[in-house]
Design brief:
The complex is a heterodimer of chains A (253) and B (147). By secondary structure, chain A is an alpha+beta fold. Helices cover 58% and strands 12% of the residues of chain A. In chain A, a hairpin with a 2-residue loop joins strand 1 and strand 2. Chain A is elongated and about 115 Å long. In chain B, strand 1 and strand 2 form a beta hairpin. Chain B starts with a helix and ends with a helix. The chains are: A alpha+beta (253), B mainly alpha (147). Chains A and B meet through helix 1 and helix 3 of A and helix 2, strand 1, helix 4 and helix 6 of B.
């Protein structure tokens, strides 16, 4: 038979157990409530951050065109013939297969191309050709046709470089008629009406399709891909540095 | 693992995150890009993309603010600190997933420093959630047991 002391101890123990269970239940309830609030609040914040990030990335592609003077200065004095830049008698031809929507191509245009032009194209060591190898989306075709229309007025390379300097987010809808006209104007295309008419020419679809076939036959699947061709061979480079290109020129020229 | 160990480890990782974000911010402020190890170009490409800034502010600067907040939350005792750390790290983890998606699917370039930051925030997130689940209401439970 339990003594009074033992009964009191037992009651105290039961009370402690009940309090501990209540505290644990309260703990779990708090975890679920606050955890749910924290989770949904975090979801909202992340969604807002993504929306702000996306809207900020559309800053490229507006009609306030930048970089035209820099592009013009870099191409000054370098002969152009259609899609080709430089001395047509140069021993080495570098063909860049690029997509005007491609940000890596834009980076190449800004970081490598100016030095390549000044160190290899202007002295006559190599000539450059740009071919629109469109892999990103339908807006790439619109941009490509516009560049080919600019070529009709001798401003192909200016158009491409100015486009890259003002490139927007891929497939974001920024390649509008207004944007293309603004780029063309900044690139020095004299007759915008003719430019708009030329870029609607159905023959351009065939021209772009031919480049797709050509790139495919060369095994190209990313941009920018550069084919360096000379009397001593051909080398294909993907997103090369200036050093890579100069080494290739030395090897094939 | 005790809560103190989780807090200290999380705080140390947050300091590493502050360091990474600060380095990227300094490179960006200088008009350049963080240096990629072994001469890769991914860091430059990502830094040059339009996604490197939000509302005119470099994403890396936002990252500094996030990691400093996480450092404070990790060291903050009690349920308030646990929930703050879990919420902030969930935000950081979610946004880091989005940024990684942009690198892989849109920008088509990988910045090693961004990857390092993603690894850090993932580890902090795991620690914060562990702290939240295991130690929420620990003071309440201790009071219950103590009587």
């Amino acid at each position: 038979m339990a003594t009074n002391k033992e009964r009191r101890e037992q009651a105290r123990e039961e009370r402690r157990r009940a309090e501990a269970e209540a505290a644990e239940a309260e703990r779990k309830k708090r975890l679920i409530q606050f955890g749910a609030v924290a989770f949904f609040a975090a979801l909202v914040v992340v969604a807002v951050l993504i929306v702000v990030s996306q809207s900020g990335s559309d800053s490229g592609g507006d009609t306030a065109i930048e970089g035209a003077e820099r592009v013009d200065a870099g191409l000054s004095g370098v002969p152009q013939d259609g899609t080709t830049l430089g001395d047509p008698k140069a021993a080495v031809t570098i063909t860049e297969y690029g997509d005007l929507q491609c940000p890596v191509c834009a980076a190449f245009s800004e970081q490598v191309l100016p030095d390549l032009i000044s160190e290899e194209v202007k002295p006559g060591n190599a000539q450059l050709e740009f071919k629109n190898f469109n892999i990103i989306g339908p807006e790439s075709d619109d941009a490509a046709k516009a560049s080919l229309a600019a070529a009709e007025q001798g401003r192909y390379w200016q158009f491409i470089e100015v486009f890259y300097a003002n490139q927007g987010a891929e497939n974001s809808g920024y390649v509008t008629d207004d944007f293309l006209e603004a780029v063309a104007t900044a690139a020095g295309v004299a007759d915008i009406d003719q430019f708009n008419s030329d870029r609607e020419d159905p023959a351009l679809d065939k021209e772009l399709a031919a480049v797709q076939s050509e790139a495919s036959s060369l095994g190209l699947n990313s941009t920018p891909s550069l084919v360096v061709d000379g009397p001593n061979g051909t080398k294909t480079l993907v997103s090369p540095t200036l050093d890579d290109l100069q080494q290739a020129i030395g090897e094939v020229g | 693992m005790t809560e103190r160990t989780i807090q200290r480890t999380g705080a140390a990782l947050a300091l590493v995150g502050v360091g990474i974000a600060t380095y990227i911010s300094i490179a960006d402020a200088g008009g350049g890009a963080p240096a990629c190890i072994a001469g890769g170009h991914g860091c430059q490409t990502v830094a040059d993309s339009s996604y490197a800034h939000m509302g005119g502010v470099a994403v890396s600067v936002i990252g500094i603010g996030g990691y400093v907040s996480l450092l404070v939350a990790m060291l903050w005792p009690g349920d308030a600190g646990r929930f703050a750390a879990a919420s902030l790290s969930l935000i950081g983890f979610g946004f880091s997933i989005y940024l990684t998606y942009l690198e892989l699917a849109v920008i088509d370039a990988i910045c090693q420093w961004c990857v390092a930051s993603a690894v850090v925030i993932t580890a902090i997130f795991a620690l914060s959630v562990t702290r939240l689940i295991r130690f929420t209401g620990a003071e309440l439970a201790a009071q219950g047991r103590g009587g």
